[in-house]
Structure formats: C-alpha cells, structure tokens
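To close the chapter, one final illustration. This time we ask the reader to focus less on the individual chains and more on the assembly as a whole: which components sit near each other, and how the overall shape emerges from the parts.
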Amino acid sequence: MSETEQTPVLRARGLRKEYGSQGSLVRAVDGVDLDVAAGETVAVMGPSGCGKSTLLHLVSGLDRPSSGEIWLAGLRIDQLPERALARLRRDTVGFVFQAFHLMDELTAVENVELPALLAGRPARAARRRASELLDQVGLADRARFRPAALSGGQRQRVAVARALVSEPKLVLADEPTGNLDSEATLEVLRLFESLHAAGQTLVIVTHDSRIAATADRLIGMRDGVFVDETRLADGTTGSLGALAGLEG
Amino acid sequence: MQQEVVLAMLAKEPSHGYQLRSRLQQALGPAGDAMNAGQIYVTLSRLEKGGLVSCEQTAGLPDRPDRKVYALTAAGQQRVSAWIADVSWPGPGLAEFHLKLITAAAGRLADPVAVVDAQRRELLRRLREAQRAAMAEPERSDAGLLLEGITLRLQADLRWLEACERNWTGRKDRE
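The assembled structure is written out below.
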C-alpha cells in the first residue's frame, strides 16, 4: 500500500443533493464530508433510501450535486464540463453494480475489454489486459463464456474485472453482493480482499453487513447524513469459540 | 432472571416486586410466559444480600401483601453501568439485550441507539474475524462450514440490531 500519496483519492465537502421542488423537497444527501485515502476500503452502510447510492453517483460524477465540492484524484469535478467529466470518469473510476450490468451478447473477456476499447486502447492490448484480469479474478477458463452461462458470483467477478480494466484510481461498488447467495458472496469478498491487499482504493455502499465488515472504515448513513464512523481494526476478538457454542 | 436486568429496572425508580414483574411481562410479551412468578423475588432477595439493592418496608394496602420497596445502592448503580457498557456476544440471549435497551431508556441510563451502535460495532468486528477465517479455509472444508454458520448467525444478529435501531430512532423522533 502506497503511503507516499498525500492527496486523498476522493474528497467531498458539504455535499448536498436535493430532489423535487419547494414543499416536496427531498434531501437525498444533506451535507456530507468525505475523505478516502489511497489504498483505503470504505464502506457506507445504511437502510435503503438513506442516500448512499445518490452519494456514490455524486462522487463519481454520474450526477451533479445541488451544492458542495468534490475532488477526484486531486481534481475538482463538481463544476467540470460534461465532456471532461465523462473522460475523467472513464479513466479514473471503475464501477461495480448490484445487477452486474454485463452485456448478454458478449463473452466474459469481451465484456471486460469493452471499456478499454471505448477508451481507444488498441484491440490487442485491451484483450491482453482483459485476459490478465480474468485470470486475476479466477475466471481464465470462463473467458469465452457468455454471462448467461456463468453463476451469479462469476458474473460479479467478471464485472469487477471490467471495472479494473482502465486501472482506475477508485473502484465504486453499489450493493455488489445484493444479488448473491452466501457462497457467491464469499467469492466476491475474497476478490475485494485481494484488491485491497493490492492497494486498490475502494468505496462500497451496501446494507450487507458481510461486505461492510471487510472495510477499513465503516460509515453509517441515515436520512442523507453520516451518523457514525468506525475503524474496524484487524486482530482477534477471541470469540469464535463462544460464537460456535463452545465454552468461551 | 438476570440480576442486571432487575437492577437496571430499579434505575428508573424504587419499586415493588410486582411492579417490576408487570414491567417485565410488558417488555417480553409471550416470550416471557416461561418466567416463573416467584423468580423476581428470589433475584431481589439475592441482590439485597449482595448489597446491590436496599429494601424498605412500607405500610402497604390490605389487598397488596407486597409491602417492600426496593431501590438501587451505589454498588448496584455501578453494576448497572458496567452492564449497559458490556458488549459481549452472544450473551444469555436476545431478551437480555432487548431489556437492556428498554431499561436504559426508562432509567435514562444511556441512549438506546448508542447502545445498539456500540453492540453493532462489536458484532461487525466478530463478523470480520469469522469471515477472514472462512476465506482462509479451502473450499468445502469442515472448519469452513462451521465458520459459515457463525457468519450467518452474526448476520442475523446484525439485522435484528438494525431493527432495534430503527425502532428506537423512531421512538426518539416521536418524543
């Protein structure tokens, strides 16, 4: 993990997003400050409707804030023109969604290389990179499979590989385990842990406590505001025996 | 009945045994039916012997033979505070945690939402540990299967804590 990078990968100040008009104004995000350091995994947790998906859209430039400031990799993005913003998003951010959003008619490797091709990378280099990534997520032998022939956990791993193809400074995941059973969730958790170990900066919004528990820092969000923050230290609580029903 | 629960109920106000019993019945509903009627008196007399509650005789009414009023001593108060702050899990059960929130609110001992938050942080630490251990296991190992059971159970506990938090946050807003 690089400690040399002083600028946070993501910084937000006084972030607000309002929908509707006077009388029926909804404050989806209501004054949020956030710093995410390079190599850090941050989970934002809260019930559905707490504003966490909106927050993700704002900090990635998919949506504009009503007010507040956002820096991505040191660059102020909240007032950037649309075209520059789209380019920055493409080069700097990788997205992972609950519903995978893979193209059904493309194979796994074609899905992974697609963003690189759209960014103008030579076809051969894009394919090489996509193959490497599929290998990294443990799906080298599924490269020619279409999404329909893959399990839920495998599809999400393909989606993670795709998110990494442009070597983004930041990976944003919105309920990445929301559609997965217990075993597939473990596959994705393993993958995120390996990304974390490799120094990838990750922001995950979720209401799944399992994925939240893998984060370095856990932020609780309710009604558009951050309500608490916890650093989850490593180390043992010595409670596994008691949890298993053995004398503790 | 857990001694600390009885002590924490007395933090609200000095009470007769039958008052404590009816508050417990209300808090526990049908889950409390298994409780023995005499249990609370046994607990109270143990607490009195241990110097954690004091007992005063009152004049009483003819139809109420129960004339003892119990109150917390300083030692009892200390014990209650330690219990509120304790985040051990799994404790003797869901009812104990449930009653901790109710007595914390009634006796103004702590903000129940803060109690839930502290407990959740602790459970997330345990979940993290169990999950790390599960990820380190080879596929289909015996140990991995047990760890999966632990993580599923912790998830269920965490979901209940979410429900506790929603419920108590809602009550605060109504006040």
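The longest strand of chain A covers residues 26-36. The first helix of chain A runs from residue 52 to 59. With these observations in hand, you are ready for the problems at the end of the chapter.
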